[in-house]
Amino acid sequence: MTQFGNRNPGVFDLKVYGNISKVHTPEQMRERDLLQSVATDDDFRRHTAEYNARVRWCIDQGPEYWPAHENKHRAPGDDTNFIFKIPPWHADGSVNPLGVPDNRFVEPVLPGFELPIEYDSKTGWNCHKCQEWISLPPRKFEGGVEPDDWWWCLTCRKNKPKLTARQKKFQAEVARIRDIRGLINTGCD
Ligand SMILES: [Zn+2]
Question: What pLDDT does 22 receive?
Answer without folding.
Answer: 62
